[in-house]
Amino acid sequence: MKIILLGAPGAGKGTQAAKLVEEFATPHISTGDMLRAAVKAGTPLGKKAKSYMDAGDLVPDDVIIGLVTERLQDDDTAAGFILDGFPRTVPQAEALDNIAHIDAVVELAVEDQQLVDRLSGRRVCLKCGATNHVSQLNGRTQCDCGEPLVQRDDDKPETVLSRLKVYHDQTAPLVDFYEKKGLL
Ligand code: AMP
After folding, report:
1. How far is the C-alpha of 168 from the C-alpha of 153, rounded, in Å?
2. Is 88 a catalytic residue?
3. Angle (deg, nearest 10), helices 44-55 and 157-166
4. Can you give the C-alpha Rg of the chain in angstroms?
5. Which residues of 34-45 are buried (b: 16+ CB within 10 A; e: fewer)?
6. What's the first-to-final CA gap in the chain, in angstroms?
7. Would you call 152 a catalytic residue per the annotation?
8. Catalytic pick from 163, 165, 180, 181?
9. pTM of the shown model
10. pLDDT digits 0-9 by tens, 91-129
11. How far is CA 84 from CA 5, 138, 164, in A?
12. Which residue, by CA, sits nearest to atom 8 of ligand 1?
């Protein structure tokens, strides 16, 4: 199946995607992960995206639509995929309509206050992608894979609030968009 996971930052899209991937052996396409890899590698895309990401803003639609269009041409996506973090605006959703047939959209709905708590306490492994919350780490600063667990720059408190505002302003309208199509 071709599935979109829709939800605010911290709602659990990455966590649920990882479980679905285990169960259905289908590609997990996370635009956030793709952008972070580009930033780390210092590619032109990464250089362009970094300032938007650090500010908690969205990377421009044309950039992200180009990235996803290219990824969805890969053979491994033919039978199905899980989209995590895309689309995030109505123009992105309209562009996706022209490149793929989506079977279902799953909304993960979480209260804002809980999102703030989750995001500001989130610690991630930049190597294997594991996500933890400080409250469960008991002071541990290393991932099970041996790499350090760190706070993402955009999980700092000042950026978290602007990411939630961006979600409500630009991404939440997609709930209606997909409900009207009977896919939610
Ligand atoms: P995420 O890991 O999904 O929270 O994404 C991290 C950051 O990458 C976001 O705050 C945006 O700056 C950028 N980003 C990821 N996906 C998109 C998208 N579909 N459209 C625009 N920007 C995105």
Report:
1. 21
2. yes
3. 100
4. 16
5. bbbebbeeeeeb
6. 14
7. yes
8. 163
9. 0.91
10. 999 999 999 999 999 999 999 999 999 999 999 998 888
11. 5, 29, 16
12. 32
